[in-house]
Amino acid sequence: KQEVTQIPAALSVPEGENLVLNCSFTDSAIYNLQWFRQDPGKGLTSLLLIQSSQREQTSGRLNASLDKSSGRSTLYIAASQPGDSATYLCAAHTGGFKTIFGAGTRLFVKA
Amino acid sequence: SQTIHQWPATLVQPVGSPLSLECTVEGTSNPNLYWYRQAAGRGLQLLFYSVGIGQISSEVPQNLSASRPQDRQFILSSKKLLLSDSGFYLCAWSALLPGQGLNYGYTFGSGTRLTVV
User: Fold this and answer.
1) A103 contact residues in B (CB cutoff 8 A)
2) Do the Cβ atoms of A34 and B106 come within 8 Å?
3) pLDDT tens-place string over residues B11-68
4) Residue among A43, A75, A48 at smallest CA distance from B93
5) Å from B78 to nearest chain A CA?
6) Less packed terminus of chain A by CB within 10 Å, N or C?
7) What are the chain A neighbours of B58 within 8 Å (beta carbons)?
8) Does A104 contact B101 at a Cβ distance shorter than 8 Å?
């Protein structure tokens, strides 16, 4: 059974810092892994989608990597800004209609 | 471009009352549609998914039901709400090719905060 864990559960950093959010999954047989951002009381906004054949994806200041063999994905945020404050979730798609979501990392960037 | 609409944004309902949450998708045809529930501090729980009109699969036995009367419309319902039905409900769509997993990932609606009192 696939399990997805995100550590830490919460993170507070000063503005301008580079940071890494971690996502671990127990079953390496995934089709893809997706990172989302969720603002309080809002839906999930897709940030990056990494297919199983890819190692990383980049969008602006965001870079997501995928290492299936170790069961890990990381989301790197460069030069963090207060507007980056949100909860970040990862989701591992294991085929069919099964996608397992992590509980998220709540990020707070201090001005 | 594809968009997904979900309403209402918030809802307060008394115990025992009925529920109807609606979700519609624009800009795509034959999407896979999903209803998720999110509990505070926890991951998303898949409630229902649908691969086509009238085709509904339930993941969790509960007080809720889903229907898909049109290709791009997905409805979450309950005949009698329970206190435990309170939560944040999210609709999503994806394009899924059998055997290839999700090509484009999920796109979520803005969510409905349901409070049963």
Assistant:
1) 41-43
2) yes
3) 999 999 999 999 999 998 889 999 999 987 677 999 999 989 999 999 886 789 999 9
4) A43
5) 22
6) N
7) none
8) no
